[in-house]
Design goal:
- The chain is mainly beta.
- The strands form two sheets. Strands 2, 4, 5, 6, 9, 10 and 11 form a seven-stranded mixed beta sheet that branches. It has a four-stranded antiparallel beta sheet with strand order 1-3-8-7, with no helix packed on it.
- The radius of gyration is 14 Å and the shape is elongated.
- The N and C termini lie far apart (40 Å).
């Protein structure tokens, strides 16, 4: 089992920056990959950024060049740097970990942290 807790969400003006953090606990050695997803009101949850166990990253087109995903040295921390924020970035941001449970990969989710971009 992997437990994820996000933090860092806030109200920020357009053009501003935030840093989201996700603390993983439990069976962190079983984690294969991690990512950030977001869900805006009335919309489906979407992938924002993903980082593999080898450090390869993938970003949604809408955030490329503005957001940066990274993992801490101890691998139990996940970060998302959000720059040049726009109102359309407003959403609940969720941390995700894909971890081995026996011979299968399972997805774990945090409770989410609210990011609101508004003037």
């Amino acid at each position: 089992q992997v437990h994820l807790v996000e933090s860092g969400g806030d109200l920020v003006r357009p053009g501003g920056s935030l840093r989201l953090s996700c603390a993983a606990s439990g069976s962190i050695l079983s984690i294969n990959a991690m990512g950030w997803h977001r869900q805006a009101p009335g919309k489906q949850r979407e992938l924002v950024a993903h980082i593999s166990s080898s450090g390869d990253t993938i970003y949604a087109d809408s955030v490329k060049g503005r957001f940066t995903i990274s993992r801490g040295n101890a691998k139990n921390w996940l970060y998302l740097e959000l720059n040049s924020l726009m109102p359309e970035d407003t959403a609940v941001y969720y941390c995700n970990a894909r971890a081995w449970l026996g011979a299968q990969l399972r997805d774990y989710w945090g409770q989410g942290t609210q990011v609101t971009v508004s003037s």
